[in-house]
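User:
Can I borrow your eye for a moment on a structure tokenisation matter? Would you put together a sequence-and-structure record for a protein of your own picking? Please set it down just below, with no commentary around it:
AI:
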Amino acid sequence: MVSSEQRRRQLAREKYERQQKNRAEAMAKAKRRNTVLGAALAVVVLAAGGAWAGGAFKSDAKKTDAQSAPTQPSTSPTAAASPVDVKGCTTPAAGSPNGKQWKTEPAMTVDTNAKYNVTLNTSCGAVDLQLDPSKAPHTVNSFVFLAGQNYFDHTKCHRLTTSGIYVLQCGDPTGSGSGTPGYSFADENLSGATYPAGTVAMANAGANTNGSQFFLVYKDTQLPPSYTPFGKITGGMDVLNNIAAGGVQGGTGDGAPNANVVLNSVTATKA
């Protein structure tokens, strides 16, 4: 017969084992998430010429140089650094991201027979976009929804690549490359997708993990068809080229831009 003391010890041991199991599962989950996010950025590099191995185009960008080209547009953390003055850029508007979160993708409200005009009012100048919901309805719907919620306002464009791939990545309220709006949605418009200068596409952490992070292609870039293209740049390429000319912090080809690029506000209207 089991004594009360033995039973107490057994229950304590079972509780401890459950705690250890939960900790291990949480650590494994976090490790898988970081691996996927990191892979997202590396994916771009793979397609960018075959000379480099890597994952997807992520925000968890590692420093790169002539021997280590940038990876791809993805969503994982990037080390913070101090920006420097870049001609044409000004002090960002006062304010901070609202950090709103949602459990599910917003309901479809965009008109798939129309186009949507977007203005990114950045601290380095305005960049105009035109989004096409006929090709990427869920992506455009999410972007327009987030813009309407002022989700992008006061967020940093946290990543710039200037070697192998040529993009500015934005849309993360944390500025680290790991932020999301709390929901994700499936890839779209990938069949035959290419990324010439002027493309607007989603960064991701692997297949069907789109959230809020997007990238602007300022120079023809070779990437695998893994990033949903959902619009084009219609104005402000000079702004993007100026940001790119300012370079990357630390002198690498992949990381936080020297320019302190902040989306002061983002507006989206039906054309």
User: Anything to note?
Assistant: Residues 30-56, 58-70 have pLDDT under 50 and may be disordered.
